[in-house]
Amino acid sequence: MDNIVVMGVAGCGKTTVGKALADHFNFRFVEGDELHDPASVEKMSRGEALTDSDRWPWLQRVGESMCSMNSDGSSAVVSCSALRRAYRDHICTHSNGAVLFVHLHADQAVIARRMAARVGHFMPASLLDSQYATLELLDQSETGILIDITPTMEEVIAVAIEKVATVF
User: Fold this and answer.
1) What pLDDT digit, counting tens, does each position of 55-73 carry?
2) Whether the Cβ atoms of residue 5 and residue 59 lie closer than 8 Å to each other
3) pTM score of the predicted model
4) Which of 7, 42, 109, 148 has the fewest CB neighbours in a 10 Å radius?
5) Count of Cβ atoms closer than 10 Å to residue 93 Cβ
């Protein structure tokens, strides 16, 4: 089975790009934020960064959600920050399948502007510094692609579809 994790810091467009990839490739989409437990959502809503002990169960649920979809013959696209290599490895361990990481990336100033314009999300812009401090770019040994999200979202989606198509 083929699975995609659309990753990156908060506000980079994971949900938008993930839904577009799922629609284009006829995969099922899972919003990774919905897999957080209520205590973690509350913590982030207060402007507190998650600890690794907060993240491990969530990352396991991300991997298990892909595994569950694969068991019924579906492929999955999941939006998930997956900021560190260890987090991505944890997802892969629990997915029981191949995972392509699509890393949406831009300078912090670009993301900060996008987050400032975003409404109705529990993740405050104040946590962006901690996200960038945690972020580890994809390593050459990982299966993934890096996409610059500075252009318009329509251009980003087109590039993502093009690059993912070369892998699948």
Assistant:
1) 899 999 999 999 999 988 8
2) no
3) 0.90
4) 109
5) 11
The predicted structure's pLDDT at residue 10: 83
The dihedral of CA 69, 73, 79, 80: what is its sign?
A: positive
For residue 50, give both structure tokens.
Answer: 């998650």
Residue ranges in the chain modelled with pLDDT below 50: 1, 121
DSSP bridge pairs for 93? none
Output DSSP code: residue 33: G
10 Å Cβ neighbour count for 14? 27
SS3 (DSSP) at 145:
strand
- DSSP 3-state of 28: strand
Is the Cβ–Cβ distance between 161 and 18 less than 8 Å? no
pLDDT of 117 reads: 62
Q: 């569950």: which residue's tokens?
A: 68
Spatial CA neighbour of 114 closest among 156, 164, 159: 156
Say which DSSP state 47 is in. Answer: T
What pLDDT score does 123 carry?
Answer: 53
Residue type, 54: D
Report the distance separating Cα 27 and Cα 156, nearest Å. 19
